[in-house]
Amino acid sequence: MRTLVLNAGYEPIAVVSDRRALVLVLGGKAAMLEADDTVPLRSTNEEFSRPRVILLKRYVRIPMARRMPVSRKGVLRRDDNSCAYCGRFANTIDHVQPRSRGGRDSWENLVACCLRCNNVKGDRTPEEMGWQLLRRPAAPVSHGWHVRGVDRESSEEWAPYLAA
Question: Which PANTHER family match (predicted)?
Fold first, then answer.
């Protein structure tokens, strides 16, 4: 069984095992909002309801929650696998300002690029090539939250807590 963990502000932050959730509840760090009584958790002396949703009593600050880390897969997904220079299918990434000239690995400097454009551009800037970017690269827009392993559509029991 899996348990949804809500921060003190009711935003979802994690999915943990039902046993870990019960430890948080019994330790006074969380309150149980919903329980599943069909198959209880048993100790030698007691029976406990399985937590389905718990709420942390103190707010936990999540580092880097606002900014997604840069990755090749993320750049291709952001640009919808289309080349920033010609618009064809892209399967590589390119530094707009080449790394050899001080270009960094950042959302604002990386674009999806087809293999042909990437090889032709080489170690030059788009301005030196006389090329225009079809869209300006930027950090992807956050959709509020993301909990690994949880889809908003496939979690009916958590739907009231996952509403945007």
Answer: OS07G0170200 PROTEIN (PTHR33877:SF2), SLL1193 PROTEIN (PTHR33877)
Distance CA 121, CA 20 (A): 52
- Nearest Cα neighbor of 126 from 156, 96, 163 is 96
CB 95 within 8 A of CB 89: no
CATH topology of domain 72-129: DNA Binding (I), subunit A (1.10.30)
Share of the chain above pLDDT 90, in %: 58
Per-residue model confidence as pLDDT tens digits over 101-141: 999 999 999 999 999 999 999 999 999 999 999 999 998 87
Element (H, E) at 23: helix 18-26
